[in-house]
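Let us work through a complete example step by step.
Step 1: write down the sequence.
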Amino acid sequence: MCSINISLLILAAAGISVMATAGTTAASSRFDYADALSKSILFFEGQRSGRLPPSQRMTWRKSSALRDGFDVHRDLVGGYYDAGDNVKFNFPMAFTTTMLSWSVIEFGQLMGPELQHALEAIRWGTDYLLKATRVPDSVVGAVGDPNADHNCWQRPEDMDTPRTSYVVNKQKPGSEVSAEIAAALAASSMVFRHSDRAYAALLLRRAMQVFEFADKYRGSYNDSIAAGVCPFYCDFNGYMDELIWGASWLYKATKAPSYWNYVKNNINYLDITEFGWDAKHAGINILVSQWVMKDPHNSNPFVPKADQFICSILPESPAPKSVSYSRGGLLFKPGGSNLQHATSISFLLLVYGRYMKLANKVVDCGNNVHVTPARIVSFTRGQVDYILGSNPLGMSYMVGFGQKFPKNVHHRGSVLPSVAKHPQHIDCHVGYSYFNGHDPNQNVLTGAIVGGPAEDDTFKDSRFDAPQSEPTTYINAPFVGVLAFFKPLHH
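Step 2: predict the structure and record it as tokens.
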């Protein structure tokens, strides 16, 4: 059954009014999810590094970092800046690419005309990741001196801080960044399988090579290229989850038994509740559950752990919680940039709800609490609506969406005047005069989802408060799939 029918069935079962006629879907909805989807994908154009194409829609951004890789005699132009800075951190960039690909794999049929833009966003990442893995047994882990960059407030078009390339290899391994890149390449190969078979084949071949390197030469990039990634994106969670994650995606893409055996032989490394750029545990269990849910010989421990994850989230479940909730209803986990958890967990819940629907399954959380796919959808919609404006402040946390949204986003390119308006070079420290000013950002970073409110539902619309006001690619990426799922609710 195609994803659009499954999604409509779950929406209807959740008591959400859906009317489908002549191939179109309509329903009354408080929020325009279709518009939010469009904007959430557009955001990635604001994060692009490299030479921008004529089709660039966020026109206040211009080409930047056109000599990346020069220091190591490679072409490393392209890719994404991870957040409001001008560094290319390949670990979260690869996770972003994996999640964009998974969003399309699960919900691409619901995206309509936005599917093409989603494919472009993925390809902007994969083109760069192919460059970063072009030399055998060598993977680029980051580009740009992060300390120098974070001591400047400068447009990416102007930056003159060192563009150092940080590379892992056999002598200085980086299994987490390499395995996450392998996952991204494997997942994206499935996305392009029908539209560009040659490109998909290249992605898959490279994924297999990079995974082999990640597994054969084990070690953390914390030890190998610390100067380029720590403390900003140190790996706090170890690299085994990335290796299992990479093998899981390679099995999904190839059906080669060796990858499935790898996953099964290493399952003891898996946790239950964590998922994000640094921890893949819950994502692995849910991804794998798709092909073992009806297989009693292989469902354990993946499906039981996925069930535990569901029970650790839903408020009515008696199981120990892996999240807390604000009074306004937003889920929280410790640390800053909390909306990364709300968007990633919402995505996993919706995907598992689809798999449950296909398997005619419910989750038993104990004390007579039985979670249906419809309940998962209704819960997730609450998180989505909170992010889009149904919260105590009436604030949309997506820039450019709705009437009230953050205007002082912690983002260099958004704060500083565009090259079109101010063609003169803006020096490293001169930019702070704009940062310290009281005027709203000069350029609207449309679609960016910021770090989000505090646990008491308050929000400082201040670029000084980076944990609340800074957007990241890995907040947006899973939300693309979530918004695609709910898109049929807009007429």
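Step 3: interpret the result. Residues 3-16+25-489 form a domain with the Glycosyltransferase fold (CATH 1.50.10.10).
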